[in-house]
From TrEMBL:
Annotated source species: Ensete ventricosum (Abyssinian banana)
Range of residues in the leader sequence: none
Full protein name: D-isomer specific 2-hydroxyacid dehydrogenase catalytic domain-containing protein
Protein's GO biological process: microtubule cytoskeleton organization
InterPro entries cross-referenced by the UniProt entry: AN-like
């Protein structure tokens, strides 16, 4: 079941993510990846990456981050430098203010994980095929076309 859940990777922070695993059980899998474990491919398969500072990551770790990842920067003192680097790398970075870490982190994580969960569930739904040209879709009911009267 954990293979079906979105992956949250703590990159060189939260060395013991047991609390996060318990809190996100059933919604996401949580793993810690240290700088020595970059080649394991966990960053590339993640949906969310948690880190302290993008600037402090080695270039090899920065190159593994992809534009579709949600990257949460936890408590970085220099928002402008991290934001500029993220922009240069084509990444979207969300800063979590160090003064209100608990409130902001809880809210952001809840919102984004709720979104990830819904996207994950929607991806499993069967896709409807479009109605035939000029006809109606029997699964939707009703009529199609300008001249049809229902």
């Amino acid at each position: 079941m954990a293979a079906d859940l979105p992956l949250v990777v703590s990159l060189n922070c939260l060395e013991d993510p047991s609390l996060e695993r318990v809190a996100l059980a059933g919604a996401a899998a949580v793993e810690h990846v240290g700088l020595t474990g970059l080649s394991g491919g966990r960053i590339e398969s993640a949906a969310v990456v948690l880190l302290h500072s993008l600037v402090l990551l080695p270039p090899a770790a920065q190159r593994r981050l992809r534009p579709w990842l949600l990257i949460l920067c936890l408590g970085s003192a220099d928002h402008a430098v991290n934001s500029a680097l993220a922009s240069d790398l084509g990444l979207r970075l969300v800063h979590v203010d160090a003064n209100r870490v608990e409130e902001v982190a809880d809210t952001i994580m809840a919102l984004f994980l709720g979104l990830l969960r819904r996207i994950h569930l929607l991806s499993r739904l069967p896709h409807r095929r479009p109605p035939p040209p000029g006809g109606s879709d029997p699964s939707r009911g009703g009529c199609a076309g300008a001249e049809a009267s229902c």
